[in-house]
Amino acid sequence: MKKVDVHTDGACRGNPGPGGFGVVLTSGKHRLELSQGFARTTNNRMELLAAIVALEALTQPCSVRLWSDSRYLVDAMTKGWLRGWKRKGWVTSNRQPVKNRDLWERLDAAAEAHEVEWKWLKGHAGHRENERCDELAVTASQAPGLPPDDGFEGN
To answer: What is the pTM of this model?
Structure first.
């Protein structure tokens, strides 16, 4: 399997507010940067969407190390939260509906074809690729004429 390092970040001005995500994929000498902004969304949605878009960009099954500064994302994937939510019919341990279910389902499907190692790193701590993802996400969130985040219930 091809080995791919993925760095992701989400940004939101206000929460909710205009937001965006940034992604850097590297494999050997190859590098791909992706970003997108939305008119009204949340930071958590952008963190999730960054990981989704990165995994969906891969055209074949890969061995992926995915780095994120989002505990929400990394903990859900490494501590079994996602499996539990699915098993319980998409409710949390307090019997509340899981927020961002549309994106969790999409992430689950996107990750299925790959061997993904979910890695947390501290944000805004000088890590080159994380800083680049933040730049991409912030810039995307500031673009004119941003589309709606159709899955965001606060639209």
So the answer is: 0.96
Kindly name the residue from 14, 112, 115, 124 that is annotated as catalytic.
124
Is position 134 annotated as part of the catalytic site?
yes
The verdict on whether residue 9 carries a ligand-binding annotation is yes
* Tokens encoding 131: 């800083």
pLDDT digits (tens, 9 = 90+) for 27-82: 999 999 999 999 999 999 999 999 999 999 999 999 999 999 999 999 999 999 99
Q: How far apart are CA 35 and CA 23, in angstroms?
A: 6
Residue 125 DSSP SS3: coil
Domains of the chain in start order, with CATH, are: 2-141 (3.30.420.10)
Q: Is 150 a known ligand-binding residue?
A: no
7 is catalytic: no
Longest dimension (CA), the chain: 47
